[in-house]
Amino acid sequence: MPRRRFWNYPRPNKGPVQRWLPSWRIVVGSMLGVGALGAGMFVAAYATTEIPDDLDEVKHQDTIVYYADGSELGTISDGFKREIVDYATLPEHVGGAVVASEDASFWTNPGVDPKGIVRAAWNNLTGGGRQGASTLTQQYVERYYLDTTTSYSGKVREAIIALKVARTQPKEQVLERYLNTIYWGRGTYGVQAAAQEYFGKNAADLTYSESALLSGIIPSPVRWDPSVDREQAENRWRRSIERMHEQGIITAEEYQNATFPEFREKQEATNTKGGQTGYLIEAVKKELLDSGRFTEQDWTRGLRITTTIDPKLQKAAADTVASMPEDANPNIRASLVSMDPETGAVVALYGGADYVSQNLNTATQDIVQGGSTFKPFTLIGALEEGHTLDERYDGNSPGHFPGADNGQVWEPTNFGGTDYGRIDLVKATADSVNSVYAALNIEVGPEKTVEVAHRLGIRESTEIPAEASNVLGTASVYPIDLARAYATIAAQGYRTTPHVVRSVETRSGEQIYQEQTSSERVFEPDVMAAATYAMTKVVEEGSGDDAQELERPVAGKTGTANDNMTAWFAGFVPQLATVINVRQYETVDVEAGVMKGTAPIETFGDYREITGSTWPLRAWTDFMKVATEGMPVEEFPTYTPPRPTREPSPAPTPTETEEEQFVEVPNLVGMDIAQATRELEGLGLNIGAPVAQDSDEPRGTVLAQSSTGQVPVGSTITLTVSTGQSEQTVVPEVAGMARTAAEQQLRNAGLRSSVREEENGDVAPGTVIRSDPGGGATVEPGSTVTLVVATAPADDGGDDEGDDDGNGNGGGGGNGGGGLLDPRPTPSPSASS
Question: What is the pTM of this model?
């Protein structure tokens, strides 16, 4: 009998159809072959597949930033709103609800569910809805190691890894990681963030009913959010509750009493940096990054950052600025910085109303002219050089300082053009007298003002010109730097570093950063005590009188920059220094995020103009009322005026009681200033800043002196000294002007005028043809200039057509010269108060 072949087609002895059908041997053999091949491929895949490294983002969690009192300020997040919690800290029903809803066999299955796979495959092959069969472990693998997988090959790899994970990782660990990575809608990842978002509580405090709601919406948290589809959310909650009861996670009684839980409604998506939050969060990040101890990646570590910001004072700052009158120009911006002089801790930092609409922090990222807030810098420099507060200077307006403005005469005016006569430095500080401070700055040297400003706390990169006008705050500074400088004065010469971060801790509570509160003495106590005393008079007797409302010792300084470009009040009590600034931008385009240029501050409210003593002082006082509430009243160091440092001339007849000593001031007129200075110093007298005067006398010759006869030892004598140049006046060009305008022009130049008429048919009658001396000539002040004025030619009767020229100007001087009747000084840095 011949041997039968395995492949025997067509088969003999079979019907016409059956002879072509495979035999049972072929069917069974093929199935076994395919099975063996599949098993081999699976074994090979299992052997070569490794559990991959964790995805980076699964460990990302929010860094939380807190106010100084421990309340939450905001978060620093990379888009994953997550806070990782330990499974052991959660009630059993939290994880139990998720297991009951997602994978009832979780605690016993090997990581995959073969029955579920077959059921899902059959359903998909027979045309049913697409169905998955992922176990909780497979979901964990997808989210923790692989990210989203949808292909069949990807699902196979996912299943293999799930099998390996189930063999190598405890079930509790798998469930913990699942609970911390699953997306729960509303931007939340993990059960802790979800508990906060849906119920306003920690995951450890969730009830079994709340846990059932969260577990029920896992498959589709966006569509099944109870705020979006409450009916479906309740259906899913009921399903979870039933399964929790069936699996013994809750008792029959709990099941019977279960009610759908109250939840927080879903809020419209908002920018978490809105309002003050963004400014403060960005300040925190910058400070930590600048420390060199943190990187951007650290914000995903779930750090706990405590700031120095007092929430009460931060709100007070925002409320104070918001109280600006409604008619203020919308381009006006204010900034406020308040800091502890002892530690440098910033307790309030206002740089804008809303970070989302304006991310430029005007308190820390923009510069603005300092105005008269610079005057205390010059005063401190003078005190260090041995000057005393009782020294007297010419306080009349304008001052006159030849060569002080790049070789030209500088004539700074006082605010309002006020003349004060001879006043001491206390009065000059209280009333912000420009002419006195200009003289003082020239005397001690503008370089000294620059050096003092930087030593107080103005950053070295800020350029402060070493010129006489710097005392009037022509340089632009960051408000936070000015706050640091005034805090150094408040701390009586100890300089600290402004900071907004108090400490940084890890999730586990380990402190990894502590605020830097060290201070450095940069000025001597007697200098600071004298400067502070003078600044208290700003409040007690001068432009800062509103601050008396605090009913405690206050020192400070108003500041208004040239042309009212900016206005300040910078002040302090012993425990707190605060500066407030207001400025007006030339261009503000919120939509484009553009803020640039500077314009004079337009008036608002009931103020006739905006200076440091108006709204900034009012705002400072209102803020400080809140800031000092409950704060102990402390006094500034006692200021003791210095005694004369030179020995007085021996009294002719000693007496038993100490009497004030007097000396005779000699006539110094005609002496060289060096000789006169030696004479006065030998008598124990002080020499004030010399007053320069043009004269034919040799340069340095004393022309006048402020006192003669007997004066107390230690008095200040001011000398008027020749510049060596005769005073000359330049004749203005007036040809072509109307007569009245030309005469006014000459009067403005300090010259007299006379008129000589001359017939002229080329110009309108009354028009100046020329002057004698002519325009540009130099003459003595008060000299007379002759104006040659046109008159109409005599009528010769030969022109019957009339004078069509008529010169309808009517002699009105329509050349624009009429504007000279309202002369206005050219703005200069002298207009500071």
Answer: 0.66
